[in-house]
Amino acid sequence: MIDMERVAIIGVAQTKYEQNKPETFAELVYDVTRRALEDAGITRDEVDNVVSVSSDFWDGRTISSMAISDASGAFGKDITTVEGDGTFGALYGMMRILSGSFGVTLVCAHHKGTESNMNGITNCAFDPLVERRLGIDAVSSAALQARRYMTRYALKEEQFALVSVKNHGNAMRNPLALFPMEITVEDVMNSRKLADPLKLLDCSPVSDGAAALVLAAERQAKKLSTHKKRVWLLGVGHCSDAHHLGDRDLADTRALKDAARRAYAMAGINDPLREIDVAEVYDAFSYMEPLWLEGLGVCEDGRGCEYLERGWFDFEGRLPVNPSGGRLSAHAVQVAGLAELAECALQIRGEAGEHQAGEVKTALAHGVNGMCGQSHCVWILGR
Predict the structure, then answer these.
(1) DSSP annotation string for 129-184
(2) N or C: which end of the chain has fewer CB within 10 A?
(3) Which residues pair with 368 in a beta bridge?
(4) pLDDT digits 0-9 by tens, 131-168
């Protein structure tokens, strides 16, 4: 275990995830910021700085964080922006605290996917000279990764469909989820094909929403919050792989394995399957959940689907994965990782409502940035 000053989550808030939400970006951010501060039992005056997880591409404007600076209470304070998944925003927030310059940090994320062009925006993530001209985007690149995963380990589409069945079913316990549904493998298999082998119900829905966390250094957390509200950030690891899809084996989770090793070493985790009580894993597409669970060391390479079929990752399985319903049930892109951290914090506090996965002492949150899991960020949270 690595010694460092401890940082805690002392407040969390999320919106309900919907499509075509009428609220503006600023209204969404104000809502979650206000409620996260209330949850922490503090005021804006006790916050030292703000980290915004936002994107000029998705927001359709430059310097996107400036548009929500007043709504997040950042006026008169320091505000900075992280583009990408919310887990990376939380990482930067923790780093600012560990620098010694700040004691309390608000991390907020917002996204209105239904006001954006997902295909066009994700196409811009690729090389402009060759790949972008092919029209490749998030869905078609994920289809390439799914096919490579299937080929390498002799997997079937029906096995991936089990993830959609499980996670949409879990969402029926979560009032914030966009698509709680009771579906079958046959429903997934019969849904409209988007990019072979991915079908509509293999893919996460375009969603709108926001989330916020209040982070505090140990010296501040114990002074500002009750014991029950404090959830400690025990470990974190992040790693990036090659940008070009052709420069990596899309079924090789080497960057995730490295990120997980670092997070486990910091948190003192030796056997994640036995020592972690619940996991929120990035599942923008159904095949990703077993692939990333393999990279996280929860099971051997190529056996994630086998363990899924055994029910190991069910709501009442050996390791409940995505009891919130996951990104397959609500995916506001910039918000995803921050929502995972909020869900893990609520699970540890015993406040997850109907989707509370029993007594939770240790939780894992996993976020992705870049196409086909180019970058990964893994968090371990605990009491």
Answers:
(1) TTTGGGT--HHHHHHHHHHHHHHHHT--HHHHHHHHHHHHHHHTT-TT-S------
(2) N
(3) 376
(4) 899 999 999 999 999 999 999 999 999 999 999 999 99
- The pLDDT of residue 116 is 87
Which DSSP letter does residue 22 get? S
Report whether 36 contacts 23 (CB < 8 A).
no
| Pair of tokens at residue 199 | 């079908």
Instruction: State the Cα–Cα distance between residues 261 and 161, nearest whole angstrom.
Output: 29
Neighbouring-strand partners of residue 195: 198
Task: Take residue 266 and report the two structure tokens written for it.
Answer: 């910091």
Measure the N-to-C terminal CA separation of the chain; round to a whole number of Å.
16
DSSP secondary structure code for residue 350 in this structure: T
Both tokens assigned to 277 = 């009580």
Burial pattern 149-162, b for ≥16 Cβ within 10 A else e, equals: bbeebebebebbbb
Which tokens hold the place of 191? 């849904």
The closest of 336, 377, 89, 149 to 241, measured between CA atoms, is 377
Give the span between the Cα atoms of 235 and 222, in whole angstroms.
19
C-alpha span between 252 and 212 (Å, rounded): 32
What number of CA atoms fall less than 13 Å from residue 23's CA on the CB side? 20
Per-block mean pLDDT, blocks of 10 residues, the chain (383 long): 78 97 95 97 94 88 85 89 92 94 94 91 90 94 98 98 98 98 98 98 97 94 78 97 94 98 97 97 98 98 97 97 98 96 98 97 97 97 95
pTM: 0.96
- Which amino acid, 279? A
Q: Cα(52)–Cα(47) distance, rounded to whole angstroms?
A: 14
> Of the candidates 215, 222, 230, which has an alpha carbon nearest to the alpha carbon of residue 98?
215
Location of structure tokens 């029993």? 358
Q: Report whether 288 contacts 149 (CB < 8 A).
A: no
